[in-house]
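for the writeup, i need someone to sanity check this before i put it in the appendix. the sequnce is what the collaborator sent (i think, or maybe the updated version? ugh). structure was predicted straight from it, no edits. if anything looks off just tell me and ill rerun, i have time this weekend
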Amino acid sequence: MGGYVAAIRASQLGLKTCVVEEAKLGGTCLHVGCIPTKALLESSGLFQKAGREEFGLTAEKLGFDFTRIATRRDKVVEQLFRGVQGLMRKNRIDVVEGRGRLLDPRTVATDGNQIKARRGVIVATGSRPRGLPGVEFDGERVINSDHATLAAQLPKSVVIVGASRWPRSPRAAP
């Protein structure tokens, strides 16, 4: 998300701008992170509130349809993705599909092409889930956060194993 926002601002400041995108514009936040997670949280929050007596709502059986929740999540993401594409067009930002690689501080190579930057390059690499040694993601029994966020159905049970790559500060509380 930071990459396309920086590209828009650079364009607004009068710079000729190009975004190299390996996957889809909007990156992790739009497609498997912030946005789909917030869409899921909205549905779960409504479900949780509807079940609280203090709101004065009654229903014989409170339930949910996860397929419809997932469909709504996907529609929200798709709508925002189309919005990002529109922002690229509106701000006259070139979008190159492919994986970028820095050749030097002002040259990016992608799929046999070289893009020269007169002023500089902003590197926004995004993020991806990190596995544990010896425990490979298979998308079924061992899933990562992307798999969980984009699931079409709920698992019957789940064990969550998490860790941070960032070392704790020596002053941090245990």
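The radius of gyration is 21 Å. The chain has five helices and five strands.
thx in advance!!
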